Amino acid sequence: MNILLEIGMEEIPARFLKPALNDLEKNMKTYLKENRIVFEEVKTYGTPRRLILSISNLAEKQEDLNILNQGPAKHIAFGSNGDLTKAGMGFAKSQGIEATDLEIIETPKGEYIAAKKFVKGKETQTLLPEALKGLVEGLTFPKSMKWSDKKMKFARPIQWILALADNDLVEFEVEGYKSGLISRGHRFFGEKEFAVTGIDDYFTKVRANNVIVDIEERKNMIVEMINKNCASAGEKVVIENELLDEVTNLVEYPYPIVGTFNSEFLEVPQDVLIISMQVHQRYFPILDSDGNLLPKFVVVRNGIDGSENVRIGNEKVLSARLSDARFFYQEDLKKPLSENVEKLKHVVFQKDLGTIHQKLERSKKIAEKLADILGFEGNKSDILRTIELSKADLVSNMIGEKEFTKLQGFMGAEYALRSGENEKVAKGIEEHYYPRYQGDKLPQNIEGVITGICDRIDTLVGCFGIGLIPSGSKDPFALRRSALGIVNIISNSKLDLSIDELVNISIDILELDGVLKKEKEKVKSDVMEFMNQRIINVLLDKGYRKDFILSILDVENENLLEVEKKLLTLEEVSSNENFNELVSLLKRVGNISKDYKGTVNITEELLKEGAEKSLYNFYMEFMGISEEILGKNDYLTYLKTILSGKEIIDNFFDSVMVMDEDEDIKNNRLSLLTSLNAIFNRVANLNLIETK
Questions:
Q1: What pLDDT score does 680 carry?
Q2: Read out DSSP for 44-104?
Q3: CATH code, 337-543
Q4: How many angstroms separate the CA atoms of 97 and 235, rounded?
Q5: What is the pLDDT of residue 577?
Q6: Are residues 273 and 237 in contact, defined by beta-carbon separation less than 8 angstroms?
Q7: What is the residue extent of each domain of the chain?
Q8: Which of 54, 297, 483, 613 could form an S-S bond across to 534 if both were Cys, CB 3.0 to 4.6 Å?
Q9: How far apart, in whole angstroms, are the C-alpha atoms of residue 360 and residue 114?
Q10: In which region does residue 175 sit, left (phi positive, over 0), alpha (psi from -120 to 50) or beta (all else)?
Q11: CA-CA-CA-CA torsion sign (512, 518, 522, 528)
């Protein structure tokens, strides 16, 4: 059989639609699985006014169930006289069967008593009413409401429920709403109500009533109609996926309309105008062939055709929005950006970490040290100026009025240039916010790079220093994003920078500022552990093997530049035909020596076998050149030197009994292996590498 459920309601917010449909599908699949009802497919459809669930080829009845419940062991269930004990009788009673119905089964642990039960599957038709009712009542939303005298909560008031099993009604009731065979068309271009005789009839009639229930179909219609009807030659409509998804979920039948606005507004930076159109009005901007904004836009109407009144109305609304933007912009230009810095003394970043102005002062101190460490003394003045002005736009009219918060950084750069600041500083102000989200672009000039790192490390270490550590989904200061940003920026910019040193600098400066509440050592270990996980995530995203990453981070997690060099070297060496075999041998070295607690002291006179003398000589030669090799960060030579000792190590294990009866010889051999293990694992803990 096939099932259709439609929950009709007042228009819900666009962002509620997909999560609700996902929950419908997931909850239904869970129910069917738990109740042993076979099905072919569960699909969902939706518009702002309806949530729809469709199940195809649902089994007519539950699968039968054979249950075998194991009880106590036979010798416990039966006494020495063969009679059932209290334990055996208690088990039979708990299973609802007679003692004579108990069975004896063989298990790997011996004989046990058991109860076998047969549960006959129920007809699916009898389960559907309660199942569908539970599905409706079980839906949750980010925000729910009550209405009228109803006790239940829902995103918006329910208006109707349609439920079908093939061509038959599935009867149930939710808070006085009885399921029926009635649906509704488009609010303005469809019948107020229409009756359906079956599932196919429903899909035919709902479409005839100008409702496109398939989300992907509505989305494709919007794109196709915009491309066909809304862009003239040399024009391009900017269709961002996030906005397209939102607009798709705002309408039941889309119809794009082109509107215009006064070209005088184009004196405002076009990013401001685009943000105003996209974020505030859900409009699609139109650009010319050079990427310049035209005084035109596309609004998607919830209707089947164009409307002059809709166009005029949207033009008036947008004009008011753009007037606000122009006013804010013109007011902000009346004074230099630097005048806003003083205002930041009155803007609290976090009550224990002080104002944004305090945060900037800490960031400047971090930056001064980083500039010296990284050799950017010549850029220091521009870097410090970038940090000083980096948050000044937060108290501008454009950002401070909360209308255009997405433009923070961009407006700072614009105002900096208009105030006479140099281009490097302006670009750094904009870039220090990058990356804003996963996959976003990264800062390119050193002013943006250093400012971004200093801002994030102060936030991260500061929050850990006062006990604001992310837990579960709670991360109000976006510390995970800050840590990922630091790792991505350092990696992308190939900075020869120790994260350990960076954290120490920030801790010391926060301590001098008198805001730390926790012990420095605890803050340091917590932050480094937190950073380590972000480093793993970034390197995994780059395609490196996880075991290689973990083996290197077990030895080195401070300098990302060196970590990546080691990873590339390990990948190159791992292509050697002897690599896997060598790793297995090195693990053997590590496993044998790991529990040795004695003094690590190799006495040459105690080396009796030729194979162990050869291994000792290899170790001594390696020791002699290891410091020079590592001093040059020549990881390839280091690992190839280890590879060259494969036969020597192999021969040692074939010829020498490590655990000799003579205690001195045994400890000498364990000392040799312990010393070998230590020197082998200076680039990476090779014991953590998986053999392929």
A1: 87
A2: EEEETTEEEEEEES--SBPPPEEEEEEEEEHHHHB-TTS-B-HHHHHHHHHTT--GGG-EE
A3: 1.10.3210
A4: 79
A5: 82
A6: no
A7: 3-60+123-208, 65-119, 218-332, 337-543, 564-688
A8: 483
A9: 71
A10: left
A11: negative
pLDDT digits (tens, 9 = 90+) for 194-212: 999 999 999 999 999 999 9
CA distances, 380 to each of 340, 371, 429, 431, 453 (Å): 22, 6, 15, 17, 15
Helices and strands, counts by H and E, the chain: 26, 18
Which token pair is 48?
A: 């702002």
Cα 621 from Cα 650, distance rounded (Å): 18
Confidence band of 309 (pLDDT split at 50, 70, 90): very high
Would you say 112 and 137 are in contact if contact means Cβ atoms under 8 Å apart? Answer: no
**pLDDT at residue 494 in the model:** 94
Q: Give the closest residue to 260 by CA, choosing from 221, 311, 320, 306.
A: 311
Task: Enter the DSSP assignment of 467.
Answer: T
* E strand segments, 189-283: 194-195, 235-237, 254-260
pLDDT on residue 308: 95
Class of domain 564-688: mainly alpha
Cα(559)–Cα(581) distance, integer angstroms: 30
- Residues in contact with 300: Cβ distance below 8 Å, sequence separation at least 6, in sequence order: 222, 247, 250, 251, 254, 255, 256, 257, 282, 284
pLDDT of residue 265: 96
Residues 6+ apart with CB under 8 A from 563: 535, 539, 552, 553, 556, 557
Using a 10 angstrom Cβ sphere, with 0-12 exposed, 13-18 middle and 19 or more buried, the burial of residue 385 is: buried
Q: How far apart are CA 661 and CA 650, in angstroms?
A: 22
Nearest to 261 by CA among 224, 231, 286, 295: 295
pLDDT digits (tens, 9 = 90+) for 136-162: 999 999 999 999 888 899 999 999 999
Structure tokens at 368: 């001064």
- For the chain, the straight-line distance linking the first and the last C-alpha, in angstroms and rounded, comes to 49
How many residues in total does the chain contain? 692
337, pLDDT greater than 80: yes
Smallest CA-to-CA distance from 130 within 170, 189, 176 is with 170
With contact defined as beta carbons under 8 Å apart, do 4 and 199 qualify? yes
Phi-psi region of 36 (alpha: psi -120 to 50; beta: other; left: phi over 0): left
Q: Where do the DSSP E strands lie in 493-536?
A: none
CB contact set of 617 (below 8 Å; sequence gap of 6+)? none
Residue 255 dihedral angles phi and psi, to the nearest 5°:
-145, 105
Residues 6+ apart with CB under 8 A from 472: none
Contact between 200 and 187 (Cβ < 8 Å): no
- From CA 615, how far away is CA 604, in angstroms rounded? 11
Tens-place pLDDT, residues 556-596: 778 999 999 999 999 998 888 888 888 888 888 888 888 88
In this structure, which amino acid lies at residue 340? N
∠399-404-405 over CA atoms, to 5°?
A: 65
Sign of CA dihedral 443, 449, 455, 456: positive
Whether cis (ω within 30° of 0) applies to the bond prior to 142 is no
